[in-house]
Amino acid sequence: MNEMQQNSAPAIQIAGLTKRYGDFTAVDNLSLAVLSGVIYGFLGPNGAGKSTTIGCLTGLLDPTSGSIELLGERFSSDAVALKRRIGVMPEGLALLDQLYADEFLVFQAQMFGLDKKTAQNRTDELLQTLGLADTRKKRIADFSTGMRKKIAFAAAVIHSPEILFLDEPFESIDPTTVAMLKEWLRRFAAEGRTVFMTSHVLETVEKLCNHVAIIKEGKLAWNAALNGVSTLEYGGQQYSSLEEVFLTITGRQDSSLSWM
Questions:
Q1: Angle made by CA atoms 31, 197, 70, in degrees to the nearest 5
Q2: What does the alpha-carbon distance between residue 155 and residue 173 come to, in Å, rounded to a whole number?
């Protein structure tokens, strides 16, 4: 990360973010600052509140309380102009299954303000690069899980957003495409833009992300930079890998079976 990016205002600023569903608190008083030019890993066990947090940060969910700023502006679910500056690959993918792949991507791009010619050109390039050119006239409903993930990623980046929110972006995608997407994200961040992503593949997060936060039961449990760090610290102890920190925070499960 260069000096300008390090000294810039946060691309994402969360203060006291809370989301409740009745008596259940999914996100509990969460505060974070994410700088521009960073690939930020947002981790936690299943049910920790990761997807709920991304839902609040992208306007898919309304927080119960707390504040969100994106790109220096106050964000809410009706901040239409600000939403055009972000890209989202949500947990549920949010695809229009009855459309063809190229129809969907052109529609997505035009919704974000691109003219039809630019939308079509970017769609053609994305489908070709992602190995989906021969599926152009195949309905998304007939796509495999991996193909759907590729289309969801393409829809998130087609308008060149300044912040990219990705919920499990690499799951079910073939290794060759995963390697390409990682390179895209590195270039994206090198240009001063920001990636905020969840993943359960800790080795990938450790190699790709500049900074990582771990939440547990909706609360922030750990928050640290990874750039050039040989050991990670938690609770006064040194750890050699992100996996060790994660398991220490979230708890190790008993792996014994009576028959194994």
A1: 50
A2: 16
Instruction: Give residues with Cβ within 8 angstroms of 133, minimum separation 6.
Output: 124, 127
pLDDT in tens, 121-179: 999 999 999 999 988 778 999 999 999 999 999 999 999 999 999 999 998 999 999 99
106: nearest Cα among 90, 77, 127, 89: 127
Distance separating alpha carbons of residues 201 and 72, to the nearest angstrom:
31
Inter-residue contact 158 to 112 (CB < 8 Å): yes
Amino acid sitting at position 32: L
Q: Is 240 exposed, middle or buried (0-12, 13-18, 19+ CB in 10 A)?
A: exposed
- 5 pLDDT band, cuts 50/70/90, is very low
Whether the model clears a pTM of 0.85, i.e. scores above it, the answer is yes
Lookup: tokens for 32:
């974070």
The C-alpha atoms of residue 220 and residue 105 are separated, in whole angstroms, by 36
Give pLDDT tens digits for 180-207.
999 999 999 999 999 999 999 999 999 9
Provide φ and ψ at 54, rounded to 5°: -60, -40
> The tokens of 104 are what?
């969907």
* Residue in the structure block whose two tokens are 């890209």: 87
Q: H-type helices in the chain, by residue range? A: 3-7, 50-57, 80-83, 101-111, 116-129, 145-157, 175-190, 202-208, 242-250
CA torsion 206→253→219→229, rounded to 10°? -20
Contact between 30 and 17 under an 8 Å Cβ cutoff? The reply is: yes
The helix (H) or strand (E) run that includes residue 213 is: strand 211-216
